[in-house]
Amino acid sequence: MQGVASTFPSVSRCQIERPSFKCSAPTPDQGINRLKLPPTSLQTVTQHNKTNKMSDPWKESFDHAVAVARKAGVVIRDALQNEVKVMTKSSSVDLVTQTDQRVEKIIISSVKEKFPTHSFIGEESVAAGHPCILTDDPTWIIDPVDGTTNFVHGFPFVAVSIGFAVNKELEFGVVYSCIEDKMYTGRKGKGAFCDGEKLEVSDVKDIRKSMIISELGSNRDEETVSKIFSTMKKILCIPVHGLRGSGTAATNMCLVASGAVEAFFEIGIHCWDVAAGAVIVTEAGGLLLDVDGGPWDLMSRRMMSANNKTIADRLIKEIDVFPAERDDVVKSKK
Ligand SMILES: O=P(O)(O)O[C@H]1[C@H](O)[C@@H](O)[C@H](O)[C@H](O)[C@@H]1O
Ligand SMILES: [Mg+2]
């Protein structure tokens, strides 16, 4: 499928001064699914690796995703110390920086080198005109900087998000919340973790005891904004304990997985915002639905992720749905 974008579009620029961050050096991964081999002969080790590859075919890809996400996070943290050149994509509030583009190139080129047959869907490659179609190929679904607006303003929630799908099914997700220095991971059938600690969604069933997270998005069409606000008003007035937004869908989903909030929903997100988080939430015991209660679809740009169906169904009743064009719509070339 599509490869790395050689050049990203050049768009309108302005400059912004931001507060600088002081960040500690990253710590090594603490026991994230590390393979422990007993001391034994080379032959047995080789045999063990072969068996392991068959029973756990995506382990190498997963380990690589964790390593490259951490490396990307270091690049993002370093970039926070400097002035950022801000460019725009679909509208004046859809921001992109050279860091988004650079980090995506770093991730894709490192994956290509190790796994030359794999495919990619990356936020900035798609912005540069690459197709956003999921095939049966092993596919890396990448948001190099989830929370670009946060990054531009120095609001301290920014994540590298890497989802991985095979035969159109998500196999693992890695979200590195790089300013907090938290590594979230999920692998199909193998659980979800944050820095090696197992994650579990909250067991709250009473919506009146819940905390919900959502976003205002980057659509400034008045009718859409009214629907977003009317939804939030209705949810607040249920009442719920609180309504929050971190500015990154990937981080929001990790907060559902961690049990810090009961649910995250948004219309207008893209597949790269939620592919990794989807695995992390489900592996932590949560569920994913469409915002109308139907089955969730990665390309639909709609997401309801919750700790349980009682909470999800109650929220779905209050959502004023608005249209968002699917990610996999093939645009005709003019
Ligand atoms: O563009 P990036 O990668 O920063 O991602 C988006 C967020 O993930 C959304 O939840 C959020 O609502 C915003 O639309 C934001 O753009
Ligand atoms: Mg994003």
What is the compact description of this entry?
The protein is of the alpha+beta class and about 325 residues long. It contains nine helices and 15 strands.
Describe the structure.
The structure is a single chain. With 334 residues, the chain is of the alpha+beta class. It has two domains: 58-198, Fructose-1,6-Bisphosphatase, Chain A, domain 1, CATH 3.30.540.10; 207-316, D-Maltodextrin-Binding Protein, domain 2 (3-Layer(aba) Sandwich). It has nine helices and 15 strands. Helix 2 (59-79) runs antiparallel to helix 3 and helix 7 (249-258) runs parallel beside helix 8. The protein is globular, with a radius of gyration of 20 Å. It starts with 12 loop residues before the first strand and ends in an 18-residue tail after the last helix. The structure holds D-MYO-inositol-4-phosphate and magnesium ion (MG).
What features would you highlight for this structure?
Fructose-1,6-Bisphosphatase, Chain A, domain 1, D-Maltodextrin-Binding Protein, domain 2, 2 domains, 5-stranded mixed β-sheet, binds D-MYO-inositol-4-phosphate, binds magnesium ion, magnesium, inositol monophosphate 1-phosphatase activity
